[in-house]
Amino acid sequence: MIEIQSVFITGASTGIGKACALWMDRLGWQVFAGVRREIDGETLRRESSARLWPIHIDVTDAASIAAAADQIGSVVGDTGLHGLVNNAGVAFGGILEFMPIEHLRQQLEINVIGQVAVTQPLIPLLRRAHGRIVNMSSIAGLSATPVMGPYAASKHALEALTDSLRLELRPWGIHVAAVEPGRISTPIWQKSLAEAQKWIEAYPPLAHKLYGPLIERALRSVSKESNVSSDTVAAVVAHALTASQPRIRYVVGRDAQIRLWIERLPDTLRDRIIGSRMPTYGN
After folding, report:
1. Beta bridge pairs of residue 187
2. Which of 35, 75, 125, 137 is 20 to 30 Å from 268 by CA-CA measure?
3. Residue pair 25/33 in contact by the 8 Å Cβ criterion
4. Catalytic residue, candidates 151, 203, 211, 250
5. Within 10 A of 22 (CB to CB), how many other CB atoms are there?
6. What global pTM score does this model have?
C-alpha cells in the first residue's frame, strides 16, 4: 500500500494526458498513466520518477478496464485513489449529412461511453480517499460549430455526465470538474486531420459539390498551430485535483473564452456571428 496521493490519468501517451501525468509526478503524486502501447509507457518512465506507473488500457474494452482497475486497487489498497482524470479521447469531424453512422458511433463510444466505463469501477477507490474526478471536456462541449458536430456532441454529453456525477457523488465528498480547453498544441489535431482527410476523400462527389468550401475551410482551421501548450492545461488539472476550493468548470485559452462569450448571446445573434465566418457554399 502507499501513503502518498495517487491519480489515474487516461490517454497519457501524448499531448494533454502526458503533460498531466508528468506534472502530477513532479508534484510528488503516485501517477498511474493510462497508455495503449508499451512503448509509450517506456517513454513516460524515462521522463518521470519511479512513482509513475504505466497502466495499459483501452477505454472501449471492458476486460482492459477491469484489469486496470484491479491493478490500481492492488497498489492503493485501503488508502484509495485520490484522483481520476478522464482524458482519453478522439476528435472526429465531418459533414453530418454524409458522415457514416459508424464514425459517429465510434466518436461517442470513446468520448462518452468509455469515460463512464472507466469511472464506474474506480468510484469505490475514490470514495475511500474522498478523491476527485476531472473530465477532459472541451469548449466544444459548450459551443458546437459546423463540421465538428460529432466531437461537439460527445463533449456536450460529457458535460451532462459530469454534472450528474458531481451531484450523485456529493455525499461522499467526491468533487467532479470539467476542463474545457480551446485549441491546444497537441497531437490530437494532427491525428484528427489525417483521419478527416481520409474520410472526406471517401465522401461521394455530391458532398464535395454541396459542401466543398466549408470542408476546405474546416481542414485549414484544424491544421492551424496553437500557442497554448499542453502544460497550460496540466496546470489547470493540477488545480482541480489539489485546490481547497476547486472549480466546477475550467475554461482554458483565449479562443475558448471568446467562444463562451458568443454562446451567451441570443441564439439568432450567435448564429449570425458564426455564420459570418463561414465560406459561401450550397449554391
Report:
1. none
2. 137
3. no
4. 151
5. 22
6. 0.93
